[in-house]
Amino acid sequence: MRKQAGRILVLLCLYLPLGCIQAAPLAVTVVLSEHGGPYQEFSDALREKLIKKNIYLDIVDEADEVNPGQGMVVAVGMKAAAAVAGSGARAILNVLVPETGHEKLLRDHPQRAASKAYSAIFLDQPTERQVRLIAAMLPGKRQVGVLFDSFSPDELAELKQRMAMHGLSLHEHKIGADFPLHIALQHILDNSEVLLALPDAAIYNSSTIRNILLASYRSGDPVIGFSPAYVKAGALAAVFTTPAQIAEQTARFIQQYGETRTLPSAQHPQLFEIAVNEQVGRSLGLAVRSAEELVQEISAIAGDAR
Predict the structure, then answer these.
(1) pLDDT at residue 7 greater than cutoff 90
(2) Domains (ranges, CATH) in the chain?
């Protein structure tokens, strides 16, 4: 009787349509730079997005748990991205990393540069989005100042070109031994109407941000930042992407890899939010528009997904 049942099972398997056979789940290892904060928010949101998608997520915080030949790895943050770049993983997606950091990893691991399964979703906002925020929020101001330390000439040239397209002039100043932060900042504030804060940790960090915001406020120059924390601290506004929004974009990358075994090209965040400090705006005598209105306008103009 058991032999007959076994033969029936084999015959059923042979005659089942291929579409009825459940494919093995795609195994994805998520490597966190650290637990808690935005990394945990990202991993929780990603797990939620991939429920019922036939994808198995293994979330770890140690890169040495990534075995050679591991299918797909999502590295969350620069620490994780640097740790897994040299691993044997067939596919790697770096998220919550700056564009400059991802480019450095490509230089350090040139074998990844030609791979169609090595990609990133940057932490940085696209230049055009930042410029559109300034143009939409401060239409009467034309002189924009930028402090930088590690940004490349090509990045600054692109920023200057984008601003010129919107009738804005860029005044940039590099921090260095001859021009420490307080001197460069004063020079920029004397020659600009708006300070655009770029995600450069050598300039904008916990030990400097208070003095930068205070000096800008005293000079009457609003600051456009890159995180809601800066807006809470005194910047006029910021355009940013939440970890949950990055997770939504990541889920689409993972699903594409599951279908094609390739990843989309590295890209900036598709979704974004805007935070506005209305109190700072009123103190500076500005007509402040709502964050929702600004998001809708910038999305419509740029064709961003919402």
Answers:
(1) no
(2) 23-123+244-260 (3.40.50.2300), 127-240+272-302 (3.40.50.2300)
